[in-house]
Automatic annotation (TrEMBL):
It is a multi-pass membrane protein. This is Glycosyltransferase family 4 protein. Its cofactor is Mg(2+). InterPro entries: Glycosyl_transferase_4. The keyword Nucleotide-binding does not apply. The keyword Membrane applies.
Length: 344
């Protein structure tokens, strides 16, 4: 891969995103205020919709890279970006109004279906499953991944702490030929765009992504990870987003067991418990960022060490690291710097 491409794509995305935010923020302040609710970690109305700049920057920087470097073209990349735009439009409307749950899920499923339709007929991750059954599971998983990124976007900088290291790791894998060029370009662009967004979302945030950003980001991340899995690196594709998968999925299961309405706003995620338990926002996002770097390192081990024994150890260590952080977040923080179980 052209080394200039590695530098130019995220840099262009970063600059475009930051410039668009500066231009759009007055309008977002006027028309797209997010008011505090039961889920919120903020206490004052804050403009949302910064995801418009992120997604626009991703698309623009990818288009520039394709045009100037002749990097990649074709219907697959176009279809994936079109599906992301569809989700951005749905998210933008939902940020300003409210879309009922069922139509929202149907449109999201259509966007995920567009992405899955780009997969070649020979794409098959789990050989013991029929292809049609695997496609159904991928549709459900893709729909969940899109929504879990949205669910997890409830704290300043937490999405940046997730997206930047995961996308940087994917771009690095692509540089060494372990990921196709299309998803590598998207990973580079999304990483750069999120860096451009980060200063505006720094605690205390002056701007939120909104559904217009979190939904298509989930789709693009999911597609890149799926491409990594299809390149023979399924364990790596599971390790990279493992914190988000664990926090969101365990929270959903606990809410279902309690009989709660799962699509209603709440503050049950582990990262939200952490702020209730004495962790500062910076401590939470710092631990998530470091955890994601550790998970990326484990993912790299599974890519370059093909031994099933080594891959099993890396996966077990990744699960243990995530469990450690989730456990810390769910306990009251010790003023001396540790964490301790709540008193009975």
């Amino acid at each position: 891969m052209n080394s200039l491409l590695i530098i130019a794509t995220p840099l262009v995305a970063c600059v475009i995103c930051a410039m668009l935010i500066v231009l759009l923020r007055p309008q977002l302040q006027r028309y797209a205020l997010a008011r505090p609710n039961a889920r919120s970690s903020h206490s004052v109305p804050t403009p949302q919709g910064g995801g418009v700049a992120v997604i626009a920057a991703v698309i623009t920087s990818v288009a520039i890279s394709v045009s100037f470097f002749g990097a990649v073209a074709g219907s697959v990349l176009l279809a994936v970006l079109a599906a992301a735009v569809l989700l951005a439009l749905v998210g933008a409307y939902d940020d300003l109004r409210t879309i009922p749950v069922l139509p929202r899920l149907l449109i999201q499923a259509a966007a995920v279906g567009i992405v899955l339709a780009t997969l070649p007929a020979e794409f098959h991750l789990v050989q013991v499953l029929p292809v049609w059954a695997e496609r159904v599971l991928l549709l459900i998983s893709g729909l969940w991944f899109v929504n879990l990124v949205n669910f997890m976007d409830g704290l300043d900088w937490i999405t940046a702490a997730e997206v930047v290291p995961v996308m940087a790791a994917l771009a690095l894998f692509g540089f060494y030929g372990q990921l196709p060029l299309g998803p590598t370009l998207v990973a580079l662009a999304l990483c750069g765009a999120m860096i451009g967004f980060a200063p505006f979302n720094k605690p205390v945030a002056k701007l939120f992504l909104g559904d217009v950003g979190s939904l298509p980001i989930g789709l693009l991340m999911g597609w890149c990870l799926l491409q990594l899995a299809g390149s023979g690196h399924l364990i790596a594709a599971l390790l990279l987003p493992l914190y988000y998968l664990a926090d969101a999925t365990l929270t959903l299961l606990k809410r279902l067991m309690r009989g709660e309405t799962v699509w209603v706003a709440h503050r049950s995620h582990f990262y939200q418990q952490a702020t209730n338990n004495g962790f500062s926002v910076m401590q939470v996002v710092g631990e998530v960022f470091i955890l994601n770097i550790v998970l990326a390192a484990f993912a790299a081990v599974t890519i370059w060490q093909k031994s099933p024994y080594v891959q099993g150890i890396a996966l077990a260590l990744g699960i243990s690291a995530v469990a450690l952080v989730l456990g810390r977040f769910s306990r009251k923080r010790d003023p001396l710097g540790g964490s301790k179980p709540p008193r009975s």
